[in-house]
Amino acid sequence: MYIDDGVTAPGLYLNVFRQKAGPPWNRANASIMYSADGGSTWCNPAGACNTNGAAPAANTAEFSSLPTMNFVQYEKAGTGTLTVDCQNLNIYAFSTTGDFASTYLMRAARGSNLQLAANWQYYSGAINGDVCAAGNWSSSFGNATFISAIPPSTVYIPNYGYLLGTYTDAGMVFYRASTLSGTWTQVFIDSAAGNLYGSVAALLPTLSTDASGNIHLYVCFVGQYLFDDGQGNTLYSPAFRWMTINKP
To answer: Please, are residues 227 and 235 in contact by the beta-carbon 8 Å criterion?
Structure first.
């Protein structure tokens, strides 16, 4: 995700993790990488940078409990920065356990070092609770509220709410909610994407609205398996789909 809010270090932030080589392919050892130069160099949480992405030391992690982090993405409103769910004060992410079984909501204050797990909190309030209330957040993962069994990617759409996308064997599944704490309601399944695999979460990076109020966005996610490169890396082809949501 690209951040340039005037208080957080501007640049690209990317969650990385190690995936085990065999079934059940669980994920572990997660960190957030940072690039201040548009992706030419990437820096690990220790501050080491290089053009290939300075990998954190083996078997270390900033985010050990929730290795898969998907930043919640917001767009600018026509009259200024959106303040929904106090996102003008915080960066949010949905994070999933390494076995893909449980997803939780996390936040870090804008202006903090997003690469350090100590700067993140866990939502501990009720489903459909107030995300802005300080009492609904905890520094302990043990107090975190289970949000969903799906690892999601999420974007906020003005005059629509949150759109959450995830991948299942049935295809791409999309959910809608008015607040980050839920409740999430399924809106449709794109079964045509059922033959694409290799990722458990869609990416929703683009958003535009036409003169009629219809919403357009690209959905990008990892596609079909290509090959293993013999160095522990599994390669997949990217897949893009163009989606239109009619004016609510």
So the answer is: yes
